[in-house]
Design a protein that fits this description.
14-stranded parallel sheet, globular, Pectate Lyase C-like, mainly beta, 61 strands, Pectin_lyas_fold, 2 domains
């Protein structure tokens, strides 16, 4: 594959004006021009499915809004006579300047084409989808009454910090057995935990499959049978973990010390906490805070969006209900963009929300998200593209989207399968220079087809991201960066991936090339301190793995991971004729100029794992080293390195040698000046040490 087919970054020129930023890509055949806070690739694309004409009403050029001192009227909007509400101000002005303070929304905010919403950069301009609840603190609990007309929340924020709806067990998960799928059965040892429970409105059961944790409504509790009955039916494994959510927070069996927990009984809200609650208590109300639909040329800067509630409408949607990979069953987000073009979000914060923070959905194009701060998220941070499997009409796919220099943290608080950045059916998505930390499933996921189905042209660029603390022993079958389907022209480059640690089995990986991942490059990535393997190639064709560092894998020498190596495939490598549906034999990649640096203390643990000697793949110019001074083992039968070379003609120019990192003890995996890796053409990854 030629360099022109890949979105390889050559130059990023940040100019004073956002509208003039340019990103040159590849050999010049593919270019990116960021115009008006939007990304437009140099190759011309088809016209949008809809015309987006700017609003032609009598809007004022500039309108001020201030919740503290403003007054809504036909004359408001001047700096000295501001409007009071956002809804009123956005009907009067093209550019809306929002003063510091908190603004409650009664309905999702919708902007017109050409509008700009700007908050005060010196303080917080907070736009809330919640409602403040009055109450008081006494004897270890805060109690208050929900306002008349408000809905029963599924999320509550107290003292500007997250709380958790009361559940049991409080910290650990109970095991369940089920065969019929309509109930879970607890063990006798858990009688004290579950026997006191009574069915409450909104009570849910959360069950854990490998990569999902669906919620189901509790319909009945039979104490004598030790069974909790649910709707809809449970899919997945017949035995696993679960907890019950929506129990009484004031019950001694559910009171928790570390995190404030809460429950609602009728209109009464109770929060139990080890520390007094003195600040505002917000009951989340709206599921969506902002919807940009059928618009063009919209910009938002320096605004905080918060307090979106959880959307559980999936409980009524067959056949997946609330159970599918990456929480893709969700049809809403706190901030949703759909059928819109030329949209810019700069220095925006989205926090305390019940689903994905931001969704750039179908037929959204030319969108730039820069310096987004997203935290305390019910699912993931950023979602891009249509959720359809396989090929979608061109106008349905999102395209030309950039997620830049953003802080994306603490996801999966409700839907644990949420992803830090999820790229589904989309073309030309750039995910650059972001921090992605503390998500319970996967850090960054790109691609959305599990077979050879045709998809929209990809050409994604996933580069310079810091991905850390993924799963945290919550879910399994996941990756720091996860790829799927036909990703022609996609480059995953210069990312740091560390601390990926799944719950209970070996399917966790630094970089995960899952089913049918094809035609992509993975290069210059630093992958270290992963519970199991650094790179897993499930199956796929024409992938390049070049100049990556895979270091300190399986650091705890866990038994589930000992059978696998630093690089792993699960299926047979052989002929790859896909015309007859042959997929199991399709493993075809190039593994060159990589460093594999491990401390495997088990003499039988392979360095490279596979069932056959990778007859379709190429291994060469790599450096392998086990600092435990044990032998290295290679496919197909834990062969010594010499047999791997002479019998199968792999790694003929590779070395078994210490790569001489600057200071691996502090996770500084840069190459020293005398590293033998340099002689093989391996470039040093200039990433500072960060354990």
């Amino acid at each position: 594959m030629s360099g022109a087919e890949f979105a390889v970054p050559l130059l990023v020129a940040h100019k004073a004006s956002l509208w003039e930023k340019r990103v040159a890509i590849g050999t010049g055949l593919v270019g990116v021009l960021v115009v008006g806070g939007a990304v437009t690739w140099g190759r011309p694309g088809p016209a949008n499915a809809k015309d987006h004409d700017p609003f032609q009403g009598t809007l004022l050029p500039f309108v001020h809004v201030d919740a503290r001192f403003g007054l809504d009227s036909d004359a408001c909007g001047a700096e000295r006579s501001p409007c009071q509400s956002l809804g009123w101000a956005t009907t009067r002005g093209v550019a809306v300047s929002v003063a510091c303070g908190r603004y409650e929304l009664g309905d999702p905010l919708r902007l017109r084409s050409g509008q700009r919403l700007v908050g005060d950069a010196s303080c917080e301009t907070c736009i809330s989808g919640g409602i403040e609840v009055s109450g008081a603190w006494s004897d270890g609990a805060w109690t208050g009454t929900l306002p008349d007309g408000s809905r029963t929340p599924l999320m509550v924020t107290a003292d500007e910090a997250p709380t958790r709806r009361a559940r049991t067990p409080v910290r650990l998960f109970a095991d369940y057995d089920t065969e019929e799928g309509s109930w879970v059965e607890w063990d006798e040892i858990d009688d004290a935990v579950f026997s006191p429970l009574r069915v409450r409105p909104g009570m849910m059961l959360c069950v854990f499959d490998e990569w999902t944790a669906p919620r189901l409504g509790v319909t009945k509790i039979e104490r004598d049978e030790r069974k909790i009955y649910v709707e809809p039916r449970i899919r997945g494994v017949p035995r696993g973990r679960f907890f019950v959510d929506g129990v009484d927070a004031t019950s001694p069996s559910t009171t928790e010390v570390e995190t404030p927990t809460w429950s609602v009984d009728g209109s009464s809200l109770a929060i139990v906490s080890s520390e007094p609650i003195g600040g505002p208590v917000i009951a989340h109300q709206l599921v969506e805070l902002v919807v940009l639909e059928d618009v063009a040329d919209v910009a938002i800067e320096n605004v905080v969006f918060e307090h979106a509630d959880v959307d559980v409408s999936c409980l009524d949607v067959a056949p997946t209900y609330c159970d599918f990979q990456a929480a893709s069953f969700l049809e809403t987000a706190a901030f949703r963009i759909e059928n819109a073009t030329r949209v810019s979000l700069t220095d925006v914060t989205i926090r305390h929300v019940g689903g994905y923070a931001l969704w750039v959905g179908k037929n959204a194009s030319d969108v730039e998200i820069s310096r987004l701060r997203a935290t305390d998220l019910g699912a993931g941070a950023v979602r891009v593209g249509a959720p359809n499997h396989g090929m979608v009409n061109h106008w349905q796919a999102a395209r030309d989207v950039a997620v830049l220099s953003s802080d994306l943290t603490d996801g999966g608080t409700w839907w644990m399968e949420g992803v830090g950045v999820l790229v589904q059916q989309a073309s030309r998505v750039a995910v650059l220079d972001n921090r992605v930390e503390r998500f319970r499933y996967t850090g960054i996921s790109v691609g959305w087809t599990w077979d050879w189905s045709e998809t929209p042209p990809a050409y994604h660029l996933i580069a310079n991201n810091y991905v850390s603390d993924i799963s945290m022993k919550t879910l399994s079958d996941l990756g720091g960066i996860y790829a799927l389907g036909n990703l022609r022209g996609t480059v995953v480059s210069n990312n740091t991936i560390k601390n990926v640690d799944s719950y209970d089995y070996s399917a966790n990986h630094g970089i995960y090339l899952d089913q049918a991942t094809s035609h992509a490059r993975f290069e210059y990535n630093l992958v270290h301190h992963i519970q199991c393997d650094g790179i897993f190639v499930h199956w796929g064709v024409n992938n390049t793995l070049d100049n990556n560092v895979l270091a300190d894998l399986n650091p705890q020498n866990q038994s589930d991971c000992v059978q696998y190596g630093a690089v792993r495939t699960s299926l047979v490598s052989g002929g790859c004729d896909t015309s007859n549906g042959d997929t199991l034999s399709c493993v075809d990649f190039r593994f060159t100029r990589n460093i594999v640096y491990v401390d495997f203390v088990n003499d039988h643990q392979p360095t490279i794992y596979g069932l056959t000697p990778y007859v379709n793949s190429t291994f060469d110019h790599n450096v392998y080293f086990n600092r435990a001074n044990l032998s290295l083992h290679f496919p197909p039968n834990n062969e010594p390195f010499a047999a791997w070379q002479t019998t199968y003609s792999h790694d003929l120019h590779s070395l078994v040698a210490d790569p001489r990192f600057v200071d691996p003890a502090t996770c500084d995996y840069r190459l020293s000046s005398d590293s033998p890796a340099r002689d093989l053409g391996i470039a040093s990854l200039e990433v500072p040490g960060r354990c």
